[in-house]
Amino acid sequence: MKTLISTKPLGSVETPLLAVLVTQGSTAAIGPDVQRAVATGDYKGKKDETLLVYGSGKAQRILLVSVGKAGEITRSAVRRAAAIAAKRARSLGTTTFSLAVTKEARGSLGAAELTQVLIEGAAQGGWQFTELKKQPEDPKPDLESVELVIDPGDKTAAEVGRRVGDAIAAGYLFTRNLQMQPGNVCTPSYLAEEARKLATAHGFKATILDKAQIKKEGMGALLAVAQGSAEEPRFIVLEYAGGSGAPVALIGKGVTFDSGGISIKPASNMEDMKFDKSGATAVLGTFEVLGRLKPKINVVGLIPATENLPSGTAIKPGDVVKSHLGKTIEIINTDAEGRLILCDALSYARRFKPVAAIDAATLTGAVVIALGHHAIGMLGNDEGLLAEVRDAGERAGERCWPLPLWEEYRELLKSDVADVKNSGGRSAGTIAGAWFLREFVDSFPWVHLDIAGTAYLEGESASHAKGPTGIGVRLFTEFLLKRAGA
Ligand code: BES
Ligand code: MN
Ligand code: ZN
Fold it and tell me: 421 an active-site residue?
């Protein structure tokens, strides 16, 4: 998706669709056609409400999208309205549209962040995935470009925001497309190839461990999950060197398909478990952003990648395996595989002495019960880092909500035979998952993001298509840019 910046007056913008973000109650000043339509009183301008007007001016169509009341404008509200506009543009079948924001609808957003979130929103709303269909029914062209119409005085700042917005949009779309790939296409080795391509394109260091090297490294927990599958596991390490000092580690769960293993899942909706690699794809998308923006910071990305399948060679409940850290694990439930592969990644991370480590993982169904689809479950061992990540999530429109990691919950994972067990049963599932990971975090500040409820959506909304959300890319980027002092 290309972006352009224009400083033309609204009335002289020639476009198949001019989308204007407005606030509730101030919608009239956009030309006679819109004025006439608004005068009917049909359009109330409530948040998300749209009005399509076939104008007589230079713009073939004008679309009003309300960001809500003037006092309630946030980055998220503007991003969302831009997404609604782009989604409408795509369903109208235009390959390009223009996007403007009234003075009121902009709230207190500066020109740079305004431009950034408009582009993020356009990327969100314009997304479609048709590459695996030979004959898409009702085919619509991809959205090729968006023209942002801004005040001439905002041009310089808007260009700064556009650079960031374009990079985030690229990483985000990369992630969403990769999430969407089915399990027979996106295998662990496919993920590794994607990482290698990123490294080649942007000059990162890539280290990819195959099964033999994973074994040699002593990653017994990752190997245990992989042993039921004919597809070999991979352990992916990407290093971006843009600054000085110890790196931030980003760790992503890369289960390319989670059947549950011997503790097999019910058949209904099991196909969605191709999204169990969403943590990994978020890390990869973030590296795409890093490659484009080149911020002054060091970042290492760690991705344990495997399938989780049942077979004659698969792990069984009761099996005990030895992790990379050396702790032994009793496998109670083979469907609690995410924590098994992540614990070896967290242990591997020690060699980088990271200043901070953040993992993103579709780890527990319990987080969907606790928070639904509107918040990432957030847990960690460092209050400062937790606050920083939460802040980044607010800016990114990928909100995080804390759950406690109190000592009392540790009990859930006591095993009769091993140092720890991988499931504590049904109570406090998200906390138990995080506690398991904490057992393998050694001497660095760490935050765990449980994205099981936010990685994909089961239905469509005005601002978002059904399916993958690209969650994590915007949050990670906001976090890293702030750390880099950008
Ligand atoms: N990948 C699942 C979690 C998940 C659930 C992701 C729903 C997306 C949507 C994970 O591997 C899993 O199966 N977790 C188990 C853990 C339990 C066995 C302790 C769960 O949540 O049921
Ligand atoms: Mn599972
Ligand atoms: Zn899983």
Answer: no
